[in-house]
């Protein structure tokens, strides 16, 4: 019984190194064995726990990952007070344990580093020291910021979209959902947050969304597979290449101001342990929105990572941060409920639902928030979900219903954080400048063009040509990690 994948211990010896056998792997959960197989051309790396090109896998003969011994820590006999012991008794400075770098000869300093075992882990919420606007926590994650009476709290709805913005979804965004006719109680148009990856994105369209007041956030350059790479294998350098690289691309080719690119979501919602959050802290990201909380009633409010997160790390082989990252916000994903099912992103909900089911699900979950603690109600989409006409109509009906409420606002993630930093009653929202709808003051070069440059660019890395749409001059190469400006 383990959360790690392994090979068949009874596989024939003469087939160990065959691609057929090396591509198979298994998982044992609650006494039941599940069988998996890598995609064609890939083999399973039992050490890294991922499928990779067969030339990169050199452990087909190993049945299971060797367990890493548990460090002795303060049980070791170390002469210096600020040192702990590895499993073999080697003494190292305390800060070397679970810092992402292997230091113990037996590697035990990095083998037990989850939220429950990291010896340098963040402590539980301490309200004596955690104060807004820079810190927010509660023991179970459900408390309202500022101790406001729930009846005076605006119900924020956070619409977020993951994936490239391009011709396939531009009409949905520009003509259907955000035409300007749907407005908040303060008469400002409803807004959304777009987590934009690089591949297949039209940067002219991104620039238009930003011009119109929507939030543009980051979702990596490559969106590479396998999913578990983000949680287990991505180094701090990889995180910089992927996330800061995409921020640079958005700034260069869509003119989105760097100081406004402050949020990110990891592809596949695969949280990247402390390495992800070290990168975020160093670059200056304000928030992450990748962690899925277990279903709870009432739902959870966003929180800062000054203290231990108020929920378990949900998902198979997820790798949530264990350390404290002061002032860094987590816009936690509250799951939707439909009957006996729960789902994080709406397009992960049961596929057999019809339009009426979708409308009932949206209404039910809205009430879960509105009639309890009014934690922000997040709705997380890929644009492809709206291709089903009955789903689109159900969503529009829901939009038109809830916008009749005098205290329901569709806001961006950053607007939600700004309210949480300075929580005020619904009847005083005019005091929050970012919630007003004054037109964004744009420099000439920041205005989206009417006709984009369509660049046919060669990618040396991808070994193919790609079309690239931008209001800026065409780069020499297709932008990619470690060459985000497309230099020759």
Automatic annotation (TrEMBL):
Keyword Disulfide bond annotated: yes
Q: Write down the InterPro entries for this protein, in alphabetical order.
A: CE4 (IPR052740), Chitin-bd_dom (IPR002557), Chitin-bd_dom_sf (IPR036508), Glyco_hydro/deAcase_b/a-brl (IPR011330), LDL_receptor-like_sf (IPR036055), LDLR_class-A_CS (IPR023415), LDrepeatLR_classA_rpt (IPR002172)
Q: Where is the Chitin-binding type-2 domain?
A: 1-62
Sorted alphabetically, the Gene Ontology cellular component annotations on this record are: extracellular region
Q: Which GO terms describe its biological process?
A: carbohydrate metabolic process
Q: Which cysteines are joined by disulfide bonds?
A: 86-104, 98-113
PROSITE patterns, A to Z: CHIT_BIND_II (PS50940), LDLRA_1 (PS01209), LDLRA_2 (PS50068)
Q: Which Gene3D superfamilies match?
A: Chitin binding domain, Glycoside hydrolase/deacetylase, Low-density Lipoprotein Receptor
Stated name of the protein? Hypothetical conserved protein
């Amino acid at each position: 019984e383990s959360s790690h994948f392994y090979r068949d211990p009874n596989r024939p010896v003469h087939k160990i190194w065959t691609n057929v056998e090396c591509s198979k792997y298994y998982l044992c959960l609650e006494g039941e064995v599940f069988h998996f197989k890598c995609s064609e051309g890939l083999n399973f790396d039992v050490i890294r726990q991922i499928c990779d090109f067969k030339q990169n896998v050199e452990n087909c003969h190993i049945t299971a990952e060797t367990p890493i011994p548990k460090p002795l820590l303060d049980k070791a006999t170390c002469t210096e007070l600020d040192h702990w012991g590895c499993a073999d008794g080697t003494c190292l400075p305390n800060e070397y344990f679970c810092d992402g770098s292997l230091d113990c000869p037996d590697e035990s300093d990095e083998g037990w580093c989850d939220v429950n075992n990291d010896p340098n882990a963040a402590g539980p919420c301490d309200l004596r020291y955690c104060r807004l606007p820079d810190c927010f926590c509660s023991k179970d994650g459900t408390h309202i910021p500022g101790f406001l009476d729930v009846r005076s709290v605006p119900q924020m709805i956070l619409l977020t979209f993951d994936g490239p913005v391009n011709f396939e979804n531009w009409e949905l965004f520009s003509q259907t959902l955000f035409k300007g006719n749907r407005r908040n109680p303060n008469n400002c148009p409803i807004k959304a947050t777009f987590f934009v990856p690089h591949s297949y994105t039209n940067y002219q369209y991104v620039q238009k969304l930003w011009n119109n007041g929507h939030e543009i956030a980051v979702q990596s350059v490559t969106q590479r597979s396998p999913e578990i790479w983000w949680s287990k294998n991505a180094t701090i350098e990889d995180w910089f290449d992927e996330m800061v690289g995409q921020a640079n691309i958005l700034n260069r080719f869509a003119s989105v101001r760097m100081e406004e690119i402050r949020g990110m979501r990891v592809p596949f919602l695969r949280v990247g342990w402390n390495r992800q959050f070290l990168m975020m802290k160093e670059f200056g990201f304000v928030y992450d929105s990748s962690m899925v909380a277990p279903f709870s009633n009432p739902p959870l409010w966003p929180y800062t990572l000054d203290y231990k997160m108020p929920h378990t790390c949900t998902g198979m082989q997820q790798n949530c941060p264990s350390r404290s990252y002061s002032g860094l916000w987590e816009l936690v994903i509250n799951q939707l409920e439909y009957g006996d099912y729960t789902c994080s992103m709406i397009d992960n909900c049961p596929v057999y639902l019809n339009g009426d089911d979708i409308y009932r699900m949206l209404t039910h979950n809205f009430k879960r928030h509105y009639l309890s603690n009014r934690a922000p109600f997040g709705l997380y989409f890929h644009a492809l979900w709206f291709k089903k006409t009955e789903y689109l109509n159900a969503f529009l009906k829901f939009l038109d219903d809830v916008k009749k409420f005098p205290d329901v606002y569709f806001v961006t993630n950053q607007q939600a954080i700004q309210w949480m930093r300075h929580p005020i009653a619904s009847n005083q929202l005019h005091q929050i400048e970012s919630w007003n709808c004054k037109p964004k003051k744009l420099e000439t070069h920041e205005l989206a063009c009417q006709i984009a440059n369509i660049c046919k660019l060669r990618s040396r890395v991808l070994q193919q040509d790609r079309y690239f749409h931008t209001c800026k001059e065409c780069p020499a190469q297709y932008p990619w990690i470690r060459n985000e400006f497309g230099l020759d």
